[in-house]
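> tool_call: predict_assembly(chains=two)
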Amino acid sequence: MLNRGRNIEKGRVITRRMFILAAAKILLFAGISSRLYNLQISDREKYEILSDKNRIREWKTPPQRGIIVDNFNKVLASNDRVFQLHLILDEINDFDVTIFKIKNIIGLDQFEIKKLYKKKERLKPWDTLVVSDNLTWEQFSKINLYLHELEGAKPVLSTSRFYPYANDLVHVVGYVGDASPKDLEKSEIKENFVPGLKVGKYGIENSQEKMLIGNYGIKRYEVNASGKRISQIDYIKERQGNKVNLTIDIEIQKYAQDLLKGKAGSICAMDIYTGEVVAMASSPTYDPNKFTHGINQKDWQEIRNDPLKPLINKSIAGLYSPGSTFKPLVALAALEYGILDPNKTIRCKGHKHPYELYGVKYHCWKKEGHGYMKLRNAIKQSCDIYFYEMARLLGVDKLSIIAKRYGLGTNVLGDLYNDEKNGLVPDTKWKRRALEQSWYLGETVINGIGQGYIQTTPLQLCLMTAQIANGGYKIKPHIIKDKSINYKGVISKIKLDQSNYPLHERNYLDDINVEYYQRMYHKKSNINFVLDAMFGSTNEQYGTSYKSRYDDPKYQFAGKTGTSQVRRITDLDRELDLDTEQIEYKKRDHALYVAFAPYKDPRYAISVIIEHGGSGSKAAAPLASKLIKRIIDRHKLREQFNNGNTSLA
Amino acid sequence: MLRERIQASNYSFLDKLRSIDYLLILLIIAIGSISVFAIYSTEGGKFSFYTKNHIIRLSVFFSLFLVLSFVRVSTWYKNAYLFYIVGLILLITVLLFGISASGATRWINLYFLNLQPSELMKIAVIICFARYYHRIQSSDIQSYKFLIQPIILLIIPCYLVIQQPDLGTSILIAGSGIAIIWLAGLNIKYFVYSGLLLLVSLPFVISILKPYQKSRILTFFNPDRDPLGAGYQIIQSKIAIGSGGFFGKGFLKGTQSYLEFLPEKHTDFIFTLFSEEFGFLGSIILLFLYILLIYRIINVGLVSRSFFAKLYCFGFATAIFLYVFVNIAMVLGMLPIVGAPLPIMSYGGSSLLSIMLGLSIVMSCKIYNQEQISVY
């Protein structure tokens, strides 16, 4: 019985302890349930987002860059089909082997292979490595032939930037290249960037990035843990960038570029009413297509080390003393301020009796002297002595006001080009501020012939000429077509305003709803006087560019030569009186020429600068003459095209 | 005594069939079926290797379970120590000739099955302890003489399993053994003292752990410590379960597991997959099925006459509870990741075999519940 009692006791203990255990189990299961509740019901959203992040991976697809066209819709920058080789990294078992095979097929050199390994290190294991973004057709077909042996290799048909007019436009359009960390800081690039996308590096490509870049597409794929794509869920198509329409006429641009071949310099041409830049050539030049896929070291060194400096856009970043091309403006300033009577006669006595001021001698360029000169003749024959005296009477501050008004001293195209220079129009205040020196009268005198501190870009000179040639109206130069303005109406209003002078019962410019069209002159006759003198300079005997004239009124133009000294002319130089060819290249003068055409009813202004070309009349004016003919020949076409008849191009 | 023997042998087959716990069988079939669907889902909805194998194993072991259920409970009792010794021999064999996978040596190649003896040891310890305490008088239980023996019996297999190394199974073996010692009536103070001792010695224990075990424990306290390494499993598992929501993502639609974010999804993390696809509702239902299973096992113990049967059933119920709890708590990020399969659900022959074996002993306790077992 004792045994039995013990057994009952033992059974009770077991059962009691079992219940205690069961209670503990229930408690723990309740814990699990509440945890499940927490995860699946309270925090569900959080984990759903995390799960989607796991599950869905986005691939951005690069947009096509917007194209760039000229005035006649000719394509200046397009997207060409290119053959590329991509490697899908997570499909490759042995990277070394694959690269070795590829190397043998398309022929990579040691340097390129090293670059590929470096590139691969930066990529994630599921990324795509672009082995080559520009294969030749032969390489591409060879890859396709051996494709079964190349795991992970993917031949891709893609697009890349192509500039059909290569060298002729690089200074206007610019070029594209791989985005630098600095590029990626720009919002328009940051927002639309896809790895591998090329971005504008210079010129229109750079400044119009927002227009050109487009929007990337998104392909959403469901991926597994190792990043492998399982299925496509979503595809938002990429959007090509917008077209950018330039005012450039590629025919004229090409011709200008041809004229400059072998020389260093610039040619600019501008519509004097609309401000449209028709050509903006800079020489020497280089091929922007080389930059698209990364320029190779040899080509780059060649461009960089060229003594004629192809990388400098001479039209806007080249700074030159305007030399005698500045004289029409000096004359205009003197007339506008009523400083002198155009009939005032000054005698130019040649090098033996130079102009003297406080014991310093100032020579005319003409050894024998010009003799007795009135203002018109002084402009026509570019007599320095006359302008020395005129500048002395005028003073630098008044001259600088007029010079600035007509477009010198500030950049022309705004922020389109990051290297465009402002130039320099000196005055007494400037000198005190910048150099902390007071102004000397001698500096005024040489300023009168466009030498000294004054610095201008070729495009500024072109603008200056245009604004004199259009009768003294302020225009806004631009190189991207502005379709918001009815230029046909503007031109007729300006012409009405011109022809009603000096009645001026009303200001016809008020009818133009464009605020920058303004009269800049004080007296219209002053403008006309200068224009007439420029006509003489080109079309009358003894005029400095007489040899480059056209007698046909259709092409007849008026201009002003300039020779800009790059160093001080010593007495020894005057004695030697060497020909341009005999002087060391670096020491030769720059040749300049500004002109507008046709003389009757002018429409275009041009500026030509040949670095170290010698005299303006010999080196620059003939080029201008040729270009003017071409521009005028194409004028009708341009006019019709701009007025909506697009079928002509 | 004699009468009872006669009584026991007199069970007619019909009686036996009548005393089968059909609800228990139903529960096994239910959980088994769910497991087939879950494994099927881990293969992305393809009727492939794991699913086929799992179905074959389930049917073979279920048949084995049915057959072994009719073995008399006294037979189990008699062979309990033998069971334990065989288990020990197998464990030693593993250490000597076992096959390795991912840095651990846990299996013996039996050609048709890679046997994991540590799984069998889970059952062997329970049955061994049930026999041990069956014959000890309640007054003797507290004596050191009778306490030392089970502790040694427990330490040997635990040590052998840790050597494999397999911390999880070792803890589960220890857990079920301790549960039976508790059930047998050992004074609470021993548990309290040894608990305190464990706490004090914890830093020392951690210092002798393998680096990967340490990292798992550290990661448990802060999964973000190494999100792509040791913490990866916990984080991904939580994401999968959490994103399932109330109703789940639907059968075969668990993106986390389908897209291979889940590690070991057909073994230790099968609950994660199930919970992702069937949500809170499905998880609670599965949990409820396990609770019912445990309840039925306890119930068998309650209606059994012998201490052996009682101790075995209660101990086995606790073991099942421990497996389920440790596994689910682990995938929910409540416990460190230790290798612990979910009974019946997880893919794995040895685990399934030992559970089915254990269940067949439970069933035999039920069928022969009136059998008195002689102490000697």
